[in-house]
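Predict the assembly for these two chains.
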Amino acid sequence: MELSTLPQQLINGILLGSIYALIALGYTMVYGVLKLINFAHGEVFMMGAYAALFASWALGYTPNNALTGSNPVNLIVMLLASMTFCGLLGVFIERFAYRPLRTQPRIASLITAIGISLFLQYGGQLFLPSSPAPNIDGKVNPFIGNLEVTLAKGAGTSAAAAADIQSKAAVAQKSYDDWKLSHKGADEFNLPADGQALLNVKHDTDRAVRDLKDRGDSGSLKLSVPRGQFIMLVTTVILMGMLTYLVMFTKQGRAMRAVSHDFDAAALMGVNVNGIVTFTFLVGSALAGAGAMMSATFLSGTKIDTFFGMLPGVKAFVAAVLGGIGNIPGAVLGGLLMGVAETLVVWLGYDNYRDAIAFVVLIIVLLVRPGGLLGSSKVEKV
Amino acid sequence: MTFWQTRLGSIALALVFCFSLDQFALHQNSFIQRLVVLAGLYVTLAVSLNLINGITGQFSIGHAAFYQVGAYTTGSLAGAFFNKAHLPGPAWLILMMFAGAIGASLAGLLVGLPSLRLKGDYLAIVTLGFGEIIRIVVQNQKALGGAYGLTIAPRFQAIWLVWLLAILCISVSRNLLKTAHGLPFLAVREDEVASSAMGVNVTSVKVTAFLIGSAFAGAAGALLAHFEGFISPAMFTMDVSFIIVTMVVLGGTGSITGAALSAVLLFYLPEKMRDLSDLHLSTIVAVGICLVIAVASIKRLMDHFHGEPRKRAGFMAGVVMGAVVLVPILGALLNNFDPLKTSVEGSKLRLVVFAVTLIVLMLLRPQGVFAHHEFSWAWVRKLFRGTVKAPEGVA
């Protein structure tokens, strides 16, 4: 735990939280119209990651023979593939698993949802590549490097010292390279004495260059965000803006709000309730698909298996409850808070507990303010 | 027969059953012994969860947590005190069952308290989260062996004790249901507000249900720890909780008979599937398609066919038979497609079967196989004679 890394951790938390927010939107929208916790939403997210993976393979970024270089069009294709697939999957689940049970007690739908999520997790293992867990090839991402913002300058180094040490490093590098050229086929891990001596000099000078740079940077405060993750954040914000427009300013959105306000009254007023529920599942699941594609592509080292959606799904659900389930801005706020809470736990040094924090937050929220931060807890009328 | 005669008779019968099962299992191989023990433990778990979910109407899906607490409490106690206690095996085991039950019921109290404010799906999530928190905390305790698990020194093969616990759990539930003590539980299940208006102390009923249910799970955990000789957090994941919930739901939420029978069935079937040979993917797809068709048509029959019940049952049987016949034909057809020719390990299907059972059951019979019904001798008599014999003295 070091205070100077806190701003960076907050940024990381917001980046992570934006994905949770996208998933949480799906939970909250479905809860809004049906009062149902769609337990299978995390698994829809998982299937979205697989859709993105297959799309990237179709575009030529297969594990054996990946293309080099990419362009944003590939990413857009993957995003659309994932969103479409997830949207359709969500609609399918609603039509065949939840709609027949709408007249039954809600627990029945909840158990079905658990059944579907188990089915996708374990049934997916039969059809989908899961061991060894594949990942989307990093080369598909054209946005390489970091965006850096310097908040405070470091101590700095004298230019002369830097030039001196760098020239020494270059000389050492060159002499080692020359030696290697004259000794073709030398085993790099078991060199003869003269080669080893040259390699040691090279390592020493390299280390000196790094030391000098670190000493110059010490005390500086830099924020760095991988470019890809910045694009991810921008896309998330755009999607949320589109959702806000959809819900607040279109006919469909007005119908959605009406259904969520009062299901039966909306039906009596001529709203096509089934159509709206289908539409809600379509939109919510497509958002999860977008989140899945982006987290699988931009968060480095993400391995995809059939349990990929379990923890993000649970955390996003907690985010939705934290913000007030059924409340769209609440889901975004809750998602960001969950992301920040998780990175803060890691920052405090309890990284083994990063998955437990979600449940702790959930239990505290439900005990202290069951309606969530932005939600209103209603008094139950008898 | 007087009250005490029947009571003593049932107790003697239970003891005879347990010891004969013990004797039977002693002559079998260790795999069968394991099956018998674990089946008994799952019966205990399912029936005790049924007390919370079925009889009291709460919705807990974190039962594995209590199981774990029981196992770990006794595991660490055994490591510290077994050598000093100088107790004979069975006495130590019974002591440990109590210890596990106390440990788990403390945890149950912890979960039961939030349940006072929460209902339905929220309670479900909290219990699930609680289970995960316990598992993660245990996983990070070096003293409890962390993720590597804990080895327990004395191992006992007390099959009779396992089944005695199961029978005890069943009889506690049954007596609760049949006597006046159980009425508040049923009242809370049916309507919380109305029952509290009638003077039922809803708080104490809910907490009691959690206490009893978790105590039995804890005792089961104690027996598991001493039977296996090794416990690790990986043995108590969410999946275990889901499996126990499936058992309760399949049997019929609220039915003790249903919970016990489906626990045995749902435990035995997946174990049987472990030695399933490799299957072609085409067969699995064919089964899937036929299942969807069968479920859809049965659902349609149930919803829209208002003819004679006998005729309806006949149609349903026909659909099922047709689906069964269709599977090999469709499988053979699908086998012509290349991507479906790959074979899949049959053992991978174990949890898929759970999932499909849950979904199909919820679609066709949400109240479970037994619904609220219980096994009774009157029902058996009716099955054989066609009528229920009226009790003496009733015209």
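The longest strand of chain B covers residues 150-151. Strands of chain B lie at 150-151, 230-231, 279-280, 343-344.
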